[in-house]
Amino acid sequence: MAVTLEKIPGQEERVILSMGPQHPSTHGVLRLVLELDGETVIRSLFDIGYLHTGFEKSFEDKTYSQGITLTDRMDYLAPLSNNLAYCLAIEKLLELEIPPKAQWARVLLTELTRVGSHLVWLGTHAIDIGAMSMFLYCFREREEILRIFEMVSGQRMMTSYFRVGGLALEPPLGWLDRVKKIVDRFPERVDEYEALLTKNPIWLRRTQGVGTISAEDAIAVGLSGPSLRGSGVDWDLRKKQPYSSYDKFNFNVPTRPEGDVYARYLVRVAEIRESLKIVRQAMEGMPEGPIKANAPHIVLPDRESMKTSIEALIYHFKIVTEGFHPPVGEVYQAIESPRGELGIYMVSDGSPKPFRCHVRAPSFANLQGLAKMMEGRLIADAVACIGSIDVVLGEIDR
Amino acid sequence: MESGYLTILIYIGAVVFLSAAILGMSAWVGVKRPTREKLSPYECGIQPVGDARERFSISFYLVGMLFILFDVEAVFLYPWAVVYKELKWFGFTEMLLYILILLAGYVYIWKKGALDWSR
Amino acid sequence: MSVDLENHAALKKLRAFDPDAVEDVQAFRGELTLFIRSTKLRRAAEFLRDDPELSFDFLADLTAVDHYPNEPRFEAVYHLLSIKTAQRLRLKVRLPGDDPRVESMLPVWPAANAYEREVFDLFGIQFENHPFLRRILLPEDWEGHPLRKDYPVQGNITRWP
Amino acid sequence: MVPVFYIFAALTIIAALSVILQRTPVYSALSLIVVLCSLAVLYVSLGAKFLAVIQVIVYAGAIMVLFVLVIMLLNAGRERHTEGSRLARWLGVPLLAAFLVEILSVIWNGLSSGAVAPPAPDAGPAAVGALLFRHYVLPFEVTSILILVAILGAVVLAKKQL
Amino acid sequence: MEILLLLVLLPPLIGAGLNGIFGRRFSQAMVSAIGCGSAGLSMVSALASAWAFSHHERVFDHPYFTWIQAGDFVAKYALYYDRLTLVMTVTVTVVAFLIHLYSRGYMEHEGGYYRFFAQLNLFLFMMLTLVTAGNYPLMFVGWEGVGLCSYLLIGFYFPKKSASDAGKKAFVVTRVGDVGFTLAVALIFWTFGTVNFSEVFSRVDALEIGSHQTVLTAIGLLLFLGAVGKSAQLPLYVWLPDAMEGPTPVSALIHAATMVTAGVYLVARSNVIYAHAPQALEVVAIVGCLTAFYAATLALVQNDLKRMLAYSTISQLGYMFLGCGAGVFAAGIFHLMTHACFKALLFLCAGSVMHALAGELDMRKMGGLRHKMPTTYWTFLIATLAISGVPFLAGFFSKDEILAGAYEGPTGQPWLYWLGTITAGLTALYMFRALYLTFHGESRLTPELEHHAHESASKMTVPLTILAFFSVVAGYVSWPKAWGGTEQFDKYLAPVFGRSEQVLTLEAAHRPEGLSPGALLTFSIVAAGLGILIAFWFYLKSTHIPARLAERLSGLYRVMVRKYYVDEFYDWLIVHPLRDGSDKFLWRVMDAGAIDDAGVNGMARAAEGVGSILRRIQSGNVRSYAAWVLLGAVIWLAYLMFGH
Amino acid sequence: MALSSDTLFLLGVAVVKVVVVLLVLLTAIAYIVWLERKLVAHIQSRWGPYRVGPYGLMQPMADGLKFLFKEDIVPLEVDRFVYWLAPFLSFTLAMLTFAVIPFGGSFKLFGHEIYLQIADLNVGLLYIFAVTSLGVYSIALAGWSSNSKYPLFGGLRSSAQMISYELSLGLAVVGTLMISGSLSLRDIVNSQTGTWHLAGTNTFLPHWNIFVQPVGFIVYFIAAIAETNRIPFDLPEGETELVGGYHTEYSSFKFAMFFMAEYANMVTVSCIATLLFFGGWHGPVFGPAWLHVLLPVFWFALKVFCFLFFYIWTRGTLPRFRYDQLMAFGWKFLLPVALLNILATSFVVAWIGT
Amino acid sequence: MVPLSHYIALSAILFVIGAAGFIFRRNIITVFMCIELMLNAVNLAFMAFSRFRGNLDGQLFVFFVIVVAAAEAAVGLALIISLYRSRDTLAIDELDSMKL
């Protein structure tokens, strides 16, 4: 935080420009320190921590279940993905199987999250490059997705809907109809976005060949998610290390070989379409059954049984007041969040609170690719580059 | 002086008065609660580093210079265009020659890279 | 999930490469953890990255765990991933409580840059030969390393004389 | 008409003085722009409307823009006091005064106000154009070469620094 | 005829336009079809018009439309066609067409294919404008046009610094000559009140011999200054060797066959003026002869094949001027024509070699190519024989006519002849040196090149063969008098030059009689033979001799290799002072400019006076300068006011 | 100068014209802002302003008042005088251009022919160019005086952009000048009266210059968008890169003046486009005498409105160029095209003339 | 009608002001601007004479002076820039050794 670039001796003519934290196109409170020769970026350095909240410390003082609410606030554009990663990590620790309906619902909702997150990215990325209408179109559509979230969890953004062992609540009746509406209408909306941008010559000029990063470099600096796939690496955890029964769904992993801003744009837009495919499959194939695993000492009982069964009441009391005791051990659970590999490293010492919980935030890693992308480009390209790796500062600073 | 020019002088006077009045008014009416942070130059919320009036790329000068020279050309074109119907082919060749000579310079600066900003 | 992790290719190869490097092995929930001697870390890392069969070219994560008050107090944790084989591997290096330092993995995985800064910032572990080892999340003038277990959660209490 | 001349003559002189008295080059440049514009008004009063506009377009709108740009580029601040020419310091003022007096007396003697102005010639763009493109063709073409040379020279000089 | 001439002129223009504007989109085949097609069309029209016109003695002079009208100054778009034009158009179009054909192969793998053809076509158009123009201003347009195209084409490989520098050099140096041309045109207008060829010539003709000599001499010299620039004569030749940075077909077309001969054409076209200005003509002859000799010596030590050819071109151009200057214009034009054939051929062969050797041009690194590239070798041999003046080939006839003219022409002088003959020997020497170094002897190629070397494609060799054919036969249009010929070519051009030669002969009636024509002829043959023999001896037999010679005469050799230090001299004379003193200079000029513009009479002179004092004071302080200037102005004004 | 009643009358007319034009102009600018917000909102499927007054019609007033009462922050270390001068210049110059724009025909009042125009100069078009050419200063000086990096960048960029496109702008109209043979805007419009005659028959195509100068028009219009710093050429302001460009450090009404100047310039260039290429106020005229006066004004306003609409439309649709691309576009494409257009036009005109 | 002499007097005053600036100012750019001032003084004289002689030639001179001034400014400022870059000063008194 608050680092500076020292001028290289002999190059005093170069200007050191601080971009951010209060800058419209750094997507939050990211600060870049640029060394400019004229308008060309020679070196760059990112400076973060303006949103640092110490979540990793907080986890250690909360029970496993309480921790879920913190995860919402990390990648605030994809809260359900964070929930999922966190719950999956604990479930792995506990070796807990969750029922298919919960799995399907989780897939459906995280994919909707992905779409919503990509929409925000598309809108802000476009407005960075000056296409302001795009932003509002994207937010209009995102609104509908947020309504679904609100419907199932009562919250638009800080959902905390996934719980260890399943879902928090039974989704309301008719929610799938709403989902269907979105899924039916969406492809043509995506066409609309593409009509505005994909072949627009100005857009092409601003993005093609800009912020190029090779596959080797991308892997070396730890890029993941669409940013990595934009460099031609076919890597998607949903395919390669399936979790939450993603292996039962049929979808493609779009990649582009160019590695420039445009490639990442195309990959994300294609991902929106793929996610919609998954949502449709999840919606149509949604199995019937319970939404929680049958593990009474871990999963909270539903209200009905709590009121009728003394056992349930005791479990409830134990879980709420003390929490559950996972075995001693450590796991690393990664999922494919909209931004890339979101990993939770959970160390348990047998107590009801995590001994250590570390979040491998995709944006944090992706940020490291930025310097490479911007080197030798103009300031205006820097803006396009930042937009193209789609960072969320909440997740970076944690 | 023709009446047209006098009218324009009146108009100029009116506009100048209007702008001055607006500016004066806003300075007079607007609240003033200055603080040190408010009055510091914008640098994305960070303490400014170095003097803002640093030197900038020479390309700006080049553009200004090219502008002057082509502006002169343009200035010749206006009277030429106005009397063009009387000059006909003579005017055409005259200007063709003129433009071609300038075009040589134009091509030169193009090749020289003076028009490239993304070096 | 009781895969025979003792015969994991990475472990076998690494042992063959340098019998001294692996201090200890752990397997839990299908995840293999290798404890590497801190002096051997660089060589082992390069081997794991460059071996064509293993090719752990992707440093997915780097963090640390504080086992205060046990000794050795710190563990630096490296999560490796191979894009080619889709295998994961966890490396751990045990570090002492007083003056914990370990070699920077920046030359092996450039991605380590920011992670190491973060671990330095929050745990106070020194990464040797890191070119720009400064605080990353906290202000430059912050005192202490918050993720250490002995860091007062309420903040530093000022003692009056 | 008559007052217009005196008003703008006064403005011209004040602005011109400001050009040489201001310590900051930007202010000098701004004053010079004022001089140029008020001269344009005087040109109009002399019937030269076309030239007045050209004066503003080229002189005030292009040449001075370059000046301002260069001042901004070089970040030319206040000038420092340097040891200059002794000759200029001691002889400058008397010389200038003598020069002015001489010229004014020449004007006084030579150009008595008896000269009656003939009717103003039509100095619109068409008239100027006709004259320019019929009788001054050669100078016109030569300017193109001049400009060409200027372009080459300036680009060479400026590019050398890149 | 009106239409036919336009048909000669317009196709290249249209071709240039099409290729220039749409070329980027066209395929290579399309571009070359347009490029070669338009050149071919132009050639056919030129041949047709030549055929239609060939028997006329009169001049075809047709104004198409008025082009410039400023006061009395009227210039029309007029075409002028007589036998001289006929020869020129035919030569230009034929050579150009062949080079277009050749370029298809040569430029195949280069970038900017369309750009090249567009510029080549544009050049052709400009060249044709130059030779068919009916007045000086129009000719000047063509003159500048070819200059521009030459500049563009030299700089064709503009990313290469040396190429763009060469382009600039050509541009700047020829500009000096153009000033002369411009002034000459102004002077012509001032003197005769017109710039039309027909009118100017008839008015000159109407003058009495000897009257207006000064003015005419001035005009002649100024025109020649233009010619010197364009035709790369002493001292403005420096740009031509550097111009070899351009693609080889360009060197062949522009810098050997056509554009550089524009100066010769200009002098020949203005023969009527020169007829009345024999002093000017003498200058032409002397400069030409000296250039011929000088450039030949330089060609002797060049190792770069194309540069060697460039110096050779300069030398041959010198011959042409020698011919014109000696008053035998027809001989000059004759040499122009033959030279166009064999020099274009030489360059194209060089291009072919270059093509085969991946751009290698250093003759020291070649050798033994004879077997690898037979066609190129044979055509090169023919051209070499032709240029060396070996009997019964084109160059022999034309060169001998010039040499004979130099001796016995109206303004010829014996020493010119002797120098010219020595030059002829040198020509044979350096040409055969090149031939031997390149094609004979041991191969000195690097292994990769050795492997790469191959005969060029038929696209390139066919034009070579055709040009070789012309190089052999072109001379037969004029069988030398010494061998009982009638010099038909002279006769044919008599309507153009006859009158001038007559005037000149009248003026210089007292020519000394000396050697017989036969003897003159023999000497030149002997010179050529000697040259060839020495070359054979030095470069095939005892190859160590040249090196030893160079060692022995190292001073001279170094001077020659460094081109007599002319480039350095120019650097010292022009470039350096400009660079060093531009600051001082600018301020002076600005001082002076400001004062000058003050329009107060005498001010400038005052400034000058003050300036001379300043030179002694030289504080270097601008403000002091200004104060001094002001002091001068005050004193001067005071003098004006009170002095009377 | 004796003040005859005639002179007084004309003077009165002049004053009335000045007042009316200023009032109409200021209102127009205010409502273009409203129009833009409304239109862009609809393009983006939003409502736009709708709270203040019906359809948000009072929004401009509210905005104006807000600006007036906002705190006027003058940062430390700015160059005070120039800092004030810049918005003043910007606004004044933007308004000055209207002095020569004719917005209708003429009518007779008390025996005087009264033209709907403040002044008809025979160098009218050049007057406009002269005034706009001074506009560069306001921007350059605003950037310079703010003593901050972002504004300085914005100011330099903006000045460079403006002067670059000013060239193309100036050259694009030469074709029309050649056709009309005058620089007076009224003459230019009058040369576009009637309809085209093709092969002797009267077509319904109005005799507008756009049909003979399409290239000129396109170049003009692109350059005009750039000249007014609008999307896709709004680089200098480009919020996402340079925050606010040269007016980053401006607040309160000084900021509003830049803002208003931008819109005034939009109106100006739209007016000129209408006058030069679209026949000015010409259009079908019918009805009683007063309609003969008012209808042309209506046509004129309508045409100008169309341009403004187009402006706003592009704003809602296109992304932004990068700076080097923008400069390259201006210098390497627009300028040569404008020159070629001139040459081609002159060729044709000369051809027809002979 | 304002008499000719007044215009010329104005021109003379402007010229002298320009000359004064030239002599007394130290900043090379300001000095350059003073030269422009002098040029303009001359232009005004041209213009006035043109008007009082009833022909347009004076105006054309002004036209050409403006054009020349444009070229001069372009080159002059380029020189100033390169001077500044090599010497890092704009003070005219320090630019006395005439080498770039």
Textual characterization of the structure:
The complex is a heteroheptamer. Chain A is mostly helical and 398 residues long. Chain A has one domain: Cytochrome-c3 Hydrogenase, chain B, CATH 1.10.645. Chain A has helices spanning 55-59, 64-72, 79-94, 100-128, 132-153, 175-197, 201-207, 215-220, 226-229, 237-240, 261-284, 303-308, 310-321, 362-366, 370-374, 379-389, 393-397; strands spanning 15-19, 31-37, 40-47, 162-163, 166-167, 329-337, 340-348, 356-360. In chain A, strands 1-2-3 form a three-stranded antiparallel sheet. A three-stranded antiparallel sheet of chain A has the order 6-7-8. In chain A, a hairpin with a 7-residue loop joins β7 (340-348) and β8. In chain A, α4 (100-128) packs antiparallel against α11 (261-284) and α6 packs antiparallel against α11. The longest helix of chain A is centred in the first third of the chain and has 29 residues, at 100-128. Chain B has a single domain (2-112), classed as Methane Monooxygenase Hydroxylase, Chain G, domain 1 (Up-down Bundle), CATH 1.20.58. Chain B has helices at 3-29, 36-39, 59-82, 84-87, 89-112. The mean pLDDT of chain B is 77. Chain B is mainly α. In chain D, α1 (2-21) runs antiparallel to α2 (25-45). The mean pLDDT of chain D is 80. Chain D is mainly α. Chain D contains six helices and no strands. Chain G is mainly α and 100 residues long. Helices cover 78% and strands 0% of the residues of chain G. Chains in contact: A-B, A-C, A-F, B-D, B-E, B-F, B-G, D-E, D-F, D-G, E-G. The interface between D and G is large, with 84 and 73 residues.
What would the keywords be for this entry?
heteroheptamer; C: 161 residues; alpha/beta; Beta Polymerase, domain 2; two-stranded parallel sheet; globular; D: 162 residues; mainly alpha; Four Helix Bundle (Hemerythrin (Met), subunit A); 2 domains; 6 helices
